[in-house]
Amino acid sequence: MSGFALEGVGLTRRYGGFTALDDVTIALTSGEIRGLIGPNGAGKSTLMDALCGRGGGTTHGTVRFQGRDISSLSARARRRAGLARSFQKTNIFPGFTAFENCRLAAQSRTPRVWHVFADAAAYAPVCQAAERALEAAGLAARGDRVASTLSHGEQRQLEIAIVLTIALAGIVGLYLVWVGGAALLAMGVLAVVAALAYTGGPFPYGYRALGEVFVFLFFGLVAVAGTAYLQALRLDGLFLVAAIPPGALITAILVVNNLRDIPTDTAAGKRTLAVVLGRRRTQAEYGALLGVAHFVPALLFLAFLGGWTPSGRAAPLTPLVLLPLLTLPITSGLLARVRGFEEPRELNQVLAGTARLSLAFGLLFGLGLALSGFVPAGSGS
Predict the structure, then answer these.
(1) DSSP string of 15-64, one letter each residue
(2) Is 248 a residue whose pLDDT tops 70?
(3) Facing residues of 14 across strands?
(4) What is the three-class DSSP state of 7?
(5) Which CATH architecture has domain 6-81?
(6) Distance (Å, rounded) from C-alpha 207 to C-alpha 190?
(7) What is the pTM of this model?
(8) What is the second-level CATH architecture of the domain 86-175?
């Protein structure tokens, strides 16, 4: 045993005939903080990648972590062993306090289906998870500070606290995995990766014009069909169809946000889908999403009239599935505002209005399906 927590001995990395790292040795004890200074191209990031098993090229040398030789392990295996790297770009909500950032991370992993209108601050488990994470990251005294006022180093600590919060809150999901099996575990892992990769990591897909695709997929298909699968332990065509309106409306919230931010995102080099499409096509995208959401209940009703029932079971013929269409007046007003806005800030009210529409539509849609007898039932019922 060398006594070092992390050792890199004789590390060399070559990309073809180019040597990016040449016989570097570094050793760190537990708790030690070491600064690595050098100009661009000196090999700082390459050294970090070599230690963590990332990047291409050919690497020679030995990496030991906690006394164990991990040189032959992949980057994923090294992360599982406890060794990983972060990146220079922070991925936090700057307008929230440090505590609120961590609490939001805990909420994302803690299912509370029947607490839509409850105050998150009154929910002890998520608050406790946030407090533990802040303490572990050394930010216990900074919990009430707005994230944007923290130093860059403290913002990096806050990122660590957010990750710790997600990990702690994820323990709550173990029971759901036990019920739902490997399929639910896979969905949960993918959802966490998608959440973190939206604006973080080496490929922030939110700035690659892919944000709407992933939001629809995970807030619509995965969230709704996954929840129904957990209750019924089977898949049904109705689950997937019923997932379309929530996914479309939540995606519409993102579309409004990105439509408002086209000028600033363009100036900052952020390539959102709204930036790619432009104002008029993004307005049309918003209208299409709201139209699809309202079309699905009508389509279901017509299908029921034609004799279709989920999994071939008898179902009462009822127009209650059309309850979400009561939100059409709200939808009409939102569409008019999106078509006629002049200043981007005018869309802030549309942003809030679309969120309220999503909530009202979802409640009415769920109520209509439940009263019509279309609720997930276990395969043995």
Answers:
(1) ETTEEEEEEEEEEE-TT--------TTSSHHHHHHHHHT-SSSEEEEEEE
(2) yes
(3) 19, 58
(4) strand
(5) 3-Layer(aba) Sandwich (3.40)
(6) 19
(7) 0.57
(8) 3-Layer(aba) Sandwich (3.40)
